[in-house]
Specification:
The chain has 15 helices and 18 strands. The chain is an alpha+beta fold. It folds into two domains: 253 residues, FAD/NAD(P)-binding domain (3-Layer(bba) Sandwich); 148 residues, Succinate dehydrogenase/fumarate reductase flavoprotein, catalytic domain (Flavocytochrome C3, Chain A, domain 1, Alpha-Beta Complex), CATH 3.90.700.
């Protein structure tokens, strides 16, 4: 094509998790544009919609592009839990927390491979982000519930009232509509256009695109006078591309992601000289259930009930991991058990499932109806039903109950929740755990203004911004659960403001 950038590959290393180093060829002549706006946002998840809102509020003419027939992407099926250190729910439950402790937890989980400046930047806005969601977007969180995902030192996540990321996305979409921002569905980005100076000047897209046919639709060229903001998410659903990064993540592993989580724009940004790092750090969610496809709902019991208030055991009846360790530690531990011919089970009893019932009303019943969760009146019946040795299971439960009483877990050092009680009374609930490919920690390297960095000179690429899962640096080796929404909203808003303020 005469108007687009050469598709010449940089080097294979850019696909293997390292940055490309060869310079792309830029267009020699300015394309003939079919349309011109100030800011183009790519993606309709948490980050993209937040970016569009802030860019529009700052006075920019904004459009949002989405390749699918629906908005929201993975954000719409997200679990709806958001880190909110300092929020009223923490104070209500007497949880002592601080931005410093949150920052430390993120760095420890990330094996200190994080961009510390980006982590600090995000954490400094954790409470204001919660307040923005509540006061400006009108997001409703459960007023009296606070939860703890793995790797966090204390409970610090809030949950949307509908138990889904859609509780935030729908409010963002309402605001976008109120602001008069067009959201164009079925619009596939084929090329990012850089001129001979290296500036990103717009996009070449296909309108009326039919996923996944890359040849479908009509080609259109849209200029961006101020900037393009890339919020296209991860590639967890693209088996070939994820195996380039980590060969063990083959087709035998399901993914929690939407089918749209593919690699086209990861490849395109590499081809135009964007710095990408840590692409081989791909997170598997440890709490998924093998009896359902995709994200499903079984993870809600495995995490919110069993990991936070119950136990995880193997087929022998033994605990095998800190149920509140970070996701990589837990996923790897389950895979080791499986390699040894064992299954991983999540167990909780009636008194300790109350937080789950409060956070996600009706979901326990849905899991039982779908037969992805089993219910038993006694420990004896549960052990028999799951094929777990009864004596060993009773011994494990008794030892854990002592840990609950003393608030100390000598076996794994697990945090014992203030509201947790010993597991004595039934009924009992049990579900199986199966890791699924979940989140890409690597991606585009950006500065503190969310500008994408050029692989050739380590300088910001004029006119190109990014936020959300398409970017790298914040999470390092492991993303802590409930930090994704925080990451997307904080940096999406920063990207929107920065693009709107850019010179034309």
């Amino acid at each position: 094509m005469t108007t687009s950038i050469s598709r010449r590959s940089l080097i294979a290393g850019s696909i293997a998790g390292t940055a490309a180093i060869a310079a792309p060829a830029f267009a020699k002549a300015a394309p003939k544009w079919d349309e011109t706006v100030d800011v183009i946002v790519v993606g309709t998840g948490f980050a993209g919609l937040a970016a569009a809102i802030e860019a529009k509020k700052a006075g920019a003419n904004v459009i949002v592009l989405e390749k699918m027939t629906f908005a929201g992407g993975n954000s719409a099926i997200n679990g709806g839990i958001m880190t909110a250190t300092g929020c009223p729910q923490q104070k209500m439950h007497g949880i002592k927390d601080s931005q410093e402790l949150l920052e430390k937890d993120i760095l420890v989980a990330g094996a200190y491979m994080n961009n510390r400046e980006k982590v600090h930047q995000m954490v400094s806005q954790v409470l204001s982000n919660y307040e923005w969601c509540v006061n400006e977007l009108g997001v409703q969180f459960l007023p009296d519930a606070i939860g703890q995902e793995g790797g966090h030192s204390v409970p610090r996540y809030v949950t949307t009232t509908n138990g889904s990321g859609s509780g935030i996305v729908m409010k963002e979409l309402e605001y976008v509509k109120k602001l008069g921002i067009p959201v164009r569905l079925r619009t596939y980005v084929e090329h990012i256009v850089r001129d001979e100076s290296g500036r990103v000047t717009g996009l070449e897209v296909r309108e009326n695109y039919k996923f996944p046919d890359k040849t479908s639709g009509t080609v259109k060229r849209i200029a961006a006078k101020k900037g393009v903001i890339l919020c296209y998410g991860g590639f967890a659903a693209d088996v070939k591309f994820r195996m380039y990064q980590d060969p063990k993540l083959d087709a035998s592993l399901d993914t929690t992601n939407q089918p749209s989580a593919t690699s086209e724009l990861w490849r395109e940004t590499s081809a135009i000289g964007c710095l990408q790092v840590q692409n081989d750090w791909i997170q598997c969610g440890p709490w998924d259930n093998p009896k359902e496809k995709g994200m499903g709902i079984g993870w809600q019991f495995n995490q919110t009930a069993a990991a936070e208030y119950g136990i995880w055991v193997n087929s022998k009846g033994d605990r095998f991991v800190n149920e509140l360790a970070n996701r990589k530690v837990r996923a790897d531990a389950i895979m080791v058990e499986q390699q040894n011919g064992l299954k991983a089970f999540a167990i909780c009893n009636e008194p300790n499932v109350q937080p789950l019932k409060k956070q996600r009303p009706g979901f326990l019943e849905k899991m039982l109806d779908a037969k992805i969760l089993d219910k038993y009146d006694t420990v004896e019946a549960m052990a028999k039903g799951a094929g777990i040795p009864l004596d060993e299971l009773k011994k494990t439960i008794a030892a854990f109950n002592e840990a609950v009483k003393t608030k100390k877990d000598p076996a794994f050092g697990r945090y014992i929740n203030n509201d947790q009680v010993p597991m004595v009374d039934g009924p009992w609930y049990i579900g199986e755990c199966q890791p699924k490919v979940h989140h890409c920690m690597g991606g585009l390297y950006t500065d503190l203004n969310c500008q994408v960095i050029d692989v050739r000179n380590d300088k910001p690429i004029p006119g190109l911004y990014a936020a959300g899962e398409s970017t790298s640096g914040v999470h390092g080796a492991v993303r802590l659960g409930s930090v994704a929404i925080l990451d997307c909203l904080v940096f999406g808003r920063i990207a929107g403001k920065a693009a709107a303020a850019a010179a034309k």
